[in-house]
Amino acid sequence: MKKFLATLILILMFQTPSQADDIRDFEIEGMSIGDSLLSFVDEEKIKKIKAITQYPNDKFIIYNASKSMNLKIYDYVNVATKKNDKNYIITNISGAIEYQKLDECLKLQEEIQNSIEGIFKSVDKQESNYASKQDKTGNSKVYGIQYYFKPYPSNESITVNCYHMTHESNINKTLKVAVNTEEYAYFLINEAYK
């Protein structure tokens, strides 16, 4: 039932009278790229919600916003800010919804896709399906859609991916929606694991 409600809320949330072309116009649980995390969580709590798992390169810090917010749509939400940013400006937001059957996820993904395309007219779309690197067997699949807001080589984007993980991988099946600034996307691709 939560997934049906999430679908309905997501569809209604994306209905806007004007067309947008700025990634900051996209919200996950009311948060947008460029917002201060301090607008949603006080600094004392921010220090307590720092995610246990971080990238080897700590240029950006990940926070588990799910621990301090009453989520309405997503099961989990993480945000990232630059290390030592006293204003905690959000450079990445990702929300995840757990699912059981691939058809559920693909239907929700399509509805989100239609909503995004109804709002953002000047974006490039790329679809891809590939084996998840999180599953060493290669049997888990990712069904992805990426929307790019600036011309190549920028990777400023919104992604909507179904992570269809096998039972053996011991990883939950999730629909993940992520919003990345150009700087954060560059970091993920070129610096995060160095």
Largest sheet: 7 strands, antiparallel
- Compute the number of structural domains: 1
- Strand percentage lies at 25-35%
Low-confidence stretches: 11-18
SSE string, helices as H and strands as E: HHEEEHEEEEH
Number of strands: 7
What integer value in Å does the Rg equal? Answer: 16 Å
Indicate the structural class: alpha+beta
Query: How much helical structure, as a percent, in the residues?
Result: 10-25%
- How many helices? 4
**N-to-C span:** 42 Å
What does this structure look like?
The protein is of the alpha+beta class. The protein has one domain. It is 24% helix and 27% strand. The protein has four helices and seven strands. Strands 1-2-3-7-6-5-4 form a seven-stranded antiparallel beta sheet, sandwiched between helices. A hairpin with a 7-residue loop joins strand 2 and strand 3. The radius of gyration is 16 Å and the shape is globular. The protein starts with a helix and ends with a helix.
